[in-house]
Amino acid sequence: MAKNAKIQNLQILRAFAAISVVTFHVAENLEINGDPARILSLIAQKGFSGVDLFFVISGFIMMNSQITNPRKPFEFFLRRLIRILPMYYFCTLLYCLVYFVKSDLFNTFEYSTSWLLASLTFTSGIASFGYPIVLIGWTLEFEILFYGLLALTSIFFKSSYQVISMTIILSFLVFTGVNSIVIEFILGMLCGLLSQRLKIGQTLAKSLVVLGVMTFLVNYLVDASGIARVILFGIPSFFLLLGAVNVKPSANRVAVALGDSSYSTYLIQILTIPFFFKVADTLSLTSISSEALGLASIIFTVLVGHFLFWRIERYFDSQIYRRVRFKRIEKREL
How far is Cα 232 from Cα 226, in angstroms, rounded to an integer? Predict the structure, then answer.
């Protein structure tokens, strides 16, 4: 499938993943505040699975780029850091700044320099803080681990041999106690390898998309709380992604644009969701139905994320790439 299809369809999946996570946290916030939205909660109950989709997508992108545009290990790792760090640091420092200016807005957060350092170095879990200051940054700690291991194994292995080596390493880490969600990176890498090696026709690709969607829906209908996330959501994400990158590119510009800003949306929700409900409470808007408030909060978060993408994330990306003098071989980064 043409590169354009991969980019556009990947971005749509990213948009879906980010909005799913936002919806889950909005519904959770409403429930904690004693004003649950039944319809929204029903839709959002498994919205956290957007993280699983993100992990599979990440594995796919890394494998695809390793095959089509291989780079030296250090350059590869540095490029991934440049892609992730600026916006994550911006949101972390913004969160701390808001706390210093208006601490009464925070119910449970208590700042500490050691926690900030652990958050900025992706060591919150190792340092026993549990989560970074930007709570959803826990997923980025796994991303950094994945990138580091991928850079290391690329010194010795390529293509399928790298997938095998990464499978062995991550499986060993899971055996020692690391969250089994990291196996979803392997599913993404396998998806990237298959997309490069096999010619997947439109009929099969569409069938895989339907299979992925249907297996996701099954998880809404059954109680499978004792089954690992990699099985419940990683495998459906694999089918969905493998099909999506091989069907014709979508012409939905809005969905693609939301995918472009999905990283900013994903990060900024930690501020926008509580901020929205604080303002709603101050303006006595709580009399409005919880369903409407929840939907408005989701839209607000998506809009702020999109604004930050255009005004902050893109600026960081262009400025840092220019300063480190990386040559952009591809017109657009996946």
Answer: 10
CB 113 within 8 A of CB 96: no
Number of domains in the chain: 1
- Give pLDDT, residue 2: 45
Inside any domain, residue 330: no
Distance of alpha carbon 62 from the chain centroid: 14
Q: Which two structure tokens, joined as six digits, stand for 163?
A: 């997938």
Whether residue 299 lies inside any domain: the answer is yes
CA distance linking residue 35 with residue 221, whole number of Å? 24
State the burial class of residue 163 (Cβ atoms within 10 Å of its Cβ: 0-12, 13-18, 19+).
buried
Report the run of H or E that residue 60 belongs to, with start and end.
Answer: helix 50-68
Q: Which two tokens stand for residue 131?
A: 């989560």
Among residues 331, 328, 316, 329, the alpha carbon closest in space to that of 85 is found at: 316
User: What is the structure's pLDDT at 284?
Assistant: 74
H/E segment holding residue 263: helix 262-282
**CA distance between the termini of the chain:** 15
Distance in angstroms (rounded) separating the CA atoms of residues 41 and 211: 24
Fill in the DSSP letter of residue 103. Answer: G
Residue 189 and residue 166 in contact, taking contact as beta carbons nearer than 8 Å: yes
Q: Is residue 333 part of a domain?
A: no
Q: What is the dihedral of CA 234, 236, 237, 240, to 10 degrees?
A: 160
Measured CA to CA, the distance from residue 268 to residue 90 in angstroms comes to 10
Residue given tokens 């594995």 in the structure block = 59
CB burial of 214-232 (b: ≥16 within 10 Å; e: otherwise) equals ebbeebeeeeeeeeebbeb
**Any domain includes 107:** yes
Look up the domain containing 212 and give its range: 3-324
Question: 251, 84 in Cβ contact below 8 A?
Answer: no
pLDDT digits (tens, 9 = 90+) for 179-212: 999 999 999 999 999 988 888 899 999 999 999 9
